[in-house]
Amino acid sequence: MRNWGVGMIVAAWLMLGGVVWLFMDGWVSRQTQPNAHLAELPPGAAVVLRRNASGHYVAPGRINGVPVTLLVDTGATAVALPAQVARRVGAPAGQPLRTATAAGTTTAYATRLASVELGGLTAEDVGGVIVPDMPGETVLLGMSFLARFSLRMEGGELHIAEHAPTHRP
Question: How much is the pTM?
């Protein structure tokens, strides 16, 4: 009978530990990837990005239909892909060019991306660069994509939407 009581106490502690782990796992995920829900937005839907724990706007997206992680970078002229991501999405390396990055000057390769998707927003024939020595798997979402949309920052959120139609008399 005593062993049964000890077993129940151990089981209770294990269950409590599991609940704490699930809570912390969800909390950490929300802090590092607060925009995970964007993958389910309908076409044309405006996107509202929240900063992650590091202060960056990171979101799931697609390039040429392949899922990728995007980091909004308004200082980047084009969408910048690490070489391994470029291979995965089928982006061909074109003309070499010298480019300035936060890590210094490097050689990158021009490319064209058939499509780039962020939430419900899609742009076709987007200019990009493949940066062979760019670490990680995160794609920098530069102005070759962002300039096609309306951007507005409000309350720590970045709102990205289709351009409103202009009415001329």
Answer: 0.74
